């Protein structure tokens, strides 16, 4: 069975794509005796390249499953092709699965709605009333800004300034100065990957002392790039970043601790990250649905792909490193609030906020 995997191993989203590709070192190469052929292509963070890669997977390799992309724009491009050709797509970024994309695509990371609530709850508990927002000028930034307007405002969180920047930008000084001038109690950075560290660094360099909150698209690169400026930052993230905070008998804890041990054993201490975990989780899901589909049809056929799609919806409680998924016709993410955790940077490491 061929699995087409699109990742951003170059370009501005490489901090997200490289860990995803690294995770492939630890995934199975066969399921129920069926060999898996992994075809991996880099999109450089470009949605057009992601769409072209997806067509190559299907046309050249007759792929039965598609996994990717690393950020929202390429993932949306993949989803459009997947739903055009009828191939199961396991999205690796928190994109909004519209009805047009819902038949063949699901999104594995925690959506903004789930991750952001951890931020709002913490803000509310700590007396935050005014919020500054700085985020990407694309669909990812829009998701977080819209969620803040829809769900943060009713909690008394008033947005006093909004600024945007592009993923390749190398400076956000102008945007940060305008944010600081609005004197917000706290700031939300609606960005992901390496570029999420840029507002953090600039805010601290320009003297902002309030709390700064980040999305689940922020990886350990925040600490690596921002250094001491990352101290005290808050990140709403997936369970893999802090599985030790879960109960001892939690199945997700066992999986995440084991995966982190493998990953950090090869790539070094404190390299655990959600992007590697999302890729690994995709294969944990495949280990459940491929045996079911094999009872219905042979790989490489439209019947097999339909069987995979149906199995994804019919099977319950997919236990992974990131949470427990239950996909339905109306829920194409499948996670609940138990899949999130709020962490803060303390002494150069992430610690769970209790």
UniProtKB/TrEMBL annotation:
CDD domains documented for this protein: PBP1_ABC_RPA1789-like
Q: Does Signal appear among the keywords?
A: yes
**What Gene Ontology biological process does one annotation of this record name?**
amino acid transport
The residues covered by the Leucine-binding protein domain are 3-332
Classification via Pfam families: Peripla_BP_6 (PF13458)
Q: Could you tell me the keywords of this UniProt record?
A: Amino-acid transport, Signal, Transport
Which InterPro entries does the entry mention? BCAA_transport (IPR051010), Leu-bd (IPR028081), Peripla_BP_I (IPR028082)
- Protein family: Belongs to the leucine-binding protein family.
Quote the protein name from its UniProt record: Branched-chain amino acid transport system substrate-binding protein
